Amino acid sequence: MSGINYxxxxxxxxxxxxxxxLQRALEQxxxxxxxxxxxxxPDGSTNMDVxxxxxxxxxxxxWAQFGHVKMRDYRxxxxxxxxxxxxxxxxxxxxxxxxxxxxxxxxxxxxxxIIVTQGDxxxxxxxxxxxxxxxxxxxxxxxxxxxxxxxxGRHLWAMVYLLHKHFGRDGREEADALLQRNSGDQDNxxxxxxxxxxTPDWLSFxxxxxxxxxxxxxxxxxxxxxxxxxxxxxxxFMLTEEAHHMFVGESGISRTIQRTCQVMNELKTDDVNKLRxxxxxxxxxxxxxxxxxxxxxxxxxGADESSNAAxxxxxxxxxxYEETKRDDDHVLKDRTYPxxxxxxxQLVQKEVPMLNALNEVLRDDYIKDSVGGVERWNKxxxxxxxxxxxxxxxxxxxxxxxxxxxxxxxxxxxxxSEAEWRLRVGEWMPGTEDRAFxxxxxxxxxxxxxxxxxxxxxxxxxxxxxxxxxxxxFN
Amino acid sequence: MTTSSPEASSAVFxxxxxxxxxxxxxxxxxxxxxxxxxxxDDNNYVVDADKCNACMACIAPCPTGSIDNWRTMLRDxxxxxxxxxxxxxxxxxxxxxxxxxxxxxAANGSGDTGNAxxxxxxxxxxxxxxxxxxxxxxxxxxxxxxxxxxxxxxxxKVVGNQRVTEAAAHGAEDNDTHHVVLDFGDTPMPLLEGQSxxxxxxxxxxxxxxxxxxxxxxxxxxxxxxxxxxNASITVKRVLQDHNGNxxxxxxxxxxxxxxxxxTVQVVGPFGASFLMPNHPGSHIVMICTGTGSAPMRxxxxxxxxxxxxxxxxDSQLLLFFGARSKTELPYFGPLQKLPTSxxxxxxxxxxxxxxxxxxxxxxxxxxxxALLPLLTNPNxxxxxxxxxxxxxxxxxxxxxxxxxxxxxxPNISAEMKAKGRLHLETY
Lengths: 475, 428
Description:
The structure holds two protein chains of two kinds. Chain A has helices spanning 6-9, 20-40, 108-128, 139-166, 168-180, 202-223, 229-267, 272-277, 283-298, 307-314, 358-383, 418-428, 432-441; strands at 49-54, 65-70, 336-343, 346-353, 472-473. Chain A is mainly α. In chain A, helix 3 packs parallel to helix 5 and helix 6 (202-223) packs parallel to helix 9 (283-298). By secondary structure, chain B is α/β, with parallel strands linked by helices. Chain B is 21% helix and 21% strand. In chain B, helix 7 (361-367) packs parallel to helix 9 (390-405). Classes of the chains: A mainly alpha, B alpha/beta.
């Protein structure tokens, strides 16, 4: 990487050309990144030219440059949103003080930990999705998958930049380790459980990008409030890309539902077997996938009561979602928040100190946002004149973290016995047969303008391109 | 483009709306909007028609395409925030009578809206405008100053303020257009022809809030009104009537027109990254404007005039179609007459000249169909439209007519022009 034109090769607004220390760190790391991409990135995509959106600056005109490029040559940039000279810390014990442009020594370990955890999820999802290119339902969808992949790669760069720039030798070692852990690896797995799950099919992929990438949005929003200014500015820019991932999920499921409803109306049936025979995904199966992905994802917010969350907030490392828009004292020491617990076989609410319940606060914000999108899916069903509604399962359903871990609660919120749970779990979450059926639908469609039978075409092309646009060229 | 709503609004305008069926409520548009025109509730994301200046900053970052929707509306029938927040789907485009547009535009001081007898078929004209610049455009700087920039405002000193229209018969204050020169001193304000800046009038509005910035097109070339100096000019018309013809004194336009040499003003911007001129040899520019819409055309013409001595543009054409009610209302009429015909071909369209039939810009364009036809299909020809919103439909209709009369497919040609940054509409 020596002797390269940094601004051209690595679009950035962090003065990379003049920062010798950062250049040296990246020169060490970048070849390892490319090796990781070759080994763990999208399967068999090396020669494809993909219609990708590349950011070359942070202003609205600069971050959406479209063109066909090979993913390996994607210009992974380093961007911080514009700063504000007089920004002050707006929550926690340091409220009113000037924000930090360097890492305060006493918070170094916690900040590093939070950046590493966020960074670890980015390459993990690329690893989870690496086989999906082989079964993409259209060129449009294949392009969207690859766009997500390169953006996850750029988010990794964003976190690696922070580690290299602000955490010295420790940071460089952590940055290296981000490429050494691998999703699902028995010996060296990714840090968070959901990122070691498989993404075996496109229904799972759409659910993942709707639900799990939405977790990313909320975590990034909370980090964008941080008193550590470089972290806040980096994550703000990442949010613009995260939006595309959620779009792929929301529109992907919406198009799947639309196609199913179309066939339901054509065949005048809601019989699951007939619909499956017609090659579309029945709505109850979509509900089971929804239940699984929602419940796995809300675990990502952590335990309902957490002293770490309190520490992160009080020390100013991580705020709440839309912290500035909230009408309270932003210190929260004398406030409480309701969390659920299982007591005497019943789900009951208890008030706990809000600082300790901040994971739950973020989880509830996330749930509200998720429900909004599910209601938009329901509008597609209603518009087709079909009497069926998708529902987000109860918060206590299928939880493995916090006070509700292991509670046997149905999607409707009813507490049941262990035996009943085991007996009925197949009603609520996808089983082997469901997964086999979905797998049977996964065939690659590569003719421009054509779509697999189980999914409807999108309403609008990427960058308003025509329906027959060649989003991916295979060469 | 030269002044933003509502101060100099015409009655018909393109309302920016968001498709609630496609929008995923990701907040990117709201976070991107430089003037806070986008807001949301639990149901929808919506655009405030009173604030949106169609700067297009939100268009490219939207991941869904739901943001790029426009409805041609009468200003006083614009969809309110409450209406939009309640939408489950986008309403269809309504047919608007041209006569209404004509009447309102006339009340606004420039009646160049064309054929009033035919109902206008609205096709969402804003959607036809390119959001990309010509490939050879210089790279612009945008939003160096503003609420989201490191510095909220730049201070500029007024170094010139000159009336560029005659008082004529309408009264001393009516038809009062000024050429104002601002000097930025040592404050960086790199500008390109076709960009605009915002000016914030001092004081507060009726609700005690600071005035919103008003946008004005740059009328000077990239190296300054005075070459080599960090200055720029704008063209501002004094607003004395609202779009219904009621008496109202536009806050910003009157403030700017009354500025004295030596005064300082607060400036935000620059704005605009697509309404930019091509810079390659052999590139032709077709400019269509009315009133203060002439500002960016003056800027482009002036830059080509300064470049003329290099010989780089010896094979390039500049065509100007310029509409006004009378010669006395044409900004820069005198200087325009002095430009050599080897540099520019000018076609005036005057709608209220005594003893003359009414003539609008599109009439002049149709007369020049033979000259325009080859340029419509020439990849090196770039079209710019700037002026009151009401002129837009007539201009596009003229271009369509020229195509269809000659067996060309206008939808394909206009789409190609949009995609290649060859058709730019900046109307207000």
